[in-house]
Design brief:
Blueprint: H1 7-26, H2 37-64, H3 69-94, H4 105-136, H5 141-163, H6 168-171, E1 172-176, E2 179-182, E3 185-188, E4 191-194, H7 200-209, E5 211-217, H8 223-226, H9 229-243, E6 247-253, E7 260-265, H10 271-279
Antiparallel strand pairs: 1-5, 2-3, 3-4, 5-7, 6-7
Transmembrane segments: 9-30, 42-64, 119-136, 142-163
Protein name: YIEGIA domain-containing protein
InterPro entries: YIEGIA
């Protein structure tokens, strides 16, 4: 076996690494949970995307050189990214006590899986770019690079579509509700929410600064997903994480009407923006009891990931 990398092979690897890293940048969602994790979390994600791209880029040349250790490297890479998922899950679980409201185990599991899958997008993109360059041959290198880059961007687009889930706005109608207080009880559009408004000050605060939203499944079968506790917890978390909580945060379901109410007193009182955040909340994997949810037409925003 040759002791040096041929220029064509080196070009293939560099193109694969470059496109794989670009894939991670495209799928990168900057984490602002804490100031320390903002720049550092971004750097870690980009670097791991580079590592995934390298593994994908060297796989084809290694196999062509009959170096079967490439399979071992890929296996180790997959194992490493599974450990990344575990680390991300543990990090979010440790931060639960610092949030306005908890994400919940179901949401944490979904986020961790999404985090892991993005590195596989980088790996597969790099592998396909290198494969395209190898199949195109060594004539007209500039044209071949252009075609391989097109293959890379097409792979990124396809993989993003395949890995992107639905969001609550795709299966539900969300409107702002009308709040009323009777004694210590809070009602939204006639639906009972809580009886914890025992003081005059708390009642005045909620009526003056509180917001409430009513979430109605667009089809009867989607009640199964909406009534999932983890899904309701995710809705409340996304709203309170983005706009803060002065006091009180509730998520209640109406058994008779099949609706869910989200009500809280935000720090930033922007009802239209809160409504959009609720619409873009992802439909959690463990709450997708109905297979047709994944085939329902898009009527809301896009789920992150």
């Amino acid at each position: 076996m040759e002791q040096y990398i041929q220029p064509h092979t080196l070009l293939m690897i560099l193109c694969g690494i470059g496109m794989g890293t670009i894939a991670r940048l495209i799928t990168l969602h900057i984490d602002t949970r804490q100031t320390p994790s903002f720049p550092n979390g971004m750097f870690i994600s980009i670097f791991l995307g580079f590592v995934a791209s390298f593994l994908g880029a060297v796989a084809i040349p290694a196999l062509l050189a009959q170096d079967l250790t490439a399979v071992t490297f890929l296996t180790l890479g997959v194992q490493h990214f599974r450990e990344v998922r575990t680390a991300e899950r543990e990090s979010m679980e440790k931060l639960e006590s610092t949030e306005f409201t908890k994400r919940g185990n179901a949401y944490i599991d979904g986020i961790a899986k999404t985090y892991e899958s993005r590195y596989y997008i980088s790996l597969i993109t790099a592998l396909l770019v290198v494969l395209a360059l190898e199949l195109l041959g060594r004539e007209e290198p500039l044209l071949n690079i252009g075609v391989s880059l097109a293959v890379g961007f097409a792979a990124i687009a396809l993989l993003r579509v395949l890995t992107k889930g639905k969001c609550v706005g795709d299966i539900c109608r969300i409107v702002q509700g009308r709040m009323t207080v009777e004694g210590s009880e809070l009602y939204v559009d006639g639906m009972f929410v809580t009886n914890k408004l025992g003081t005059e000050r708390s009642r005045e605060l909620f009526l003056r600064e509180g917001v409430a939203f009513v979430i109605t499944p667009s089809q009867k079968k989607f009640e199964i997903t909406l009534n999932n506790y983890g899904q309701r917890q995710a809705l409340l978390f996304e709203a309170t994480r983005t706009f803060g909580v002065k006091r009180f945060a509730f998520s209640r379901k109406s058994f008779t009407q099949g609706k869910v109410v989200v009500a809280f007193v935000p720090i930033l009182n922007q009802p239209d923006a809160i409504l959009e955040v609720l619409r873009r909340t992802p439909v959690l994997e463990n709450s997708r009891k109905i297979h047709t949810i994944m085939k329902s037409p898009v009527i809301g925003g896009n789920a992150h990931g």
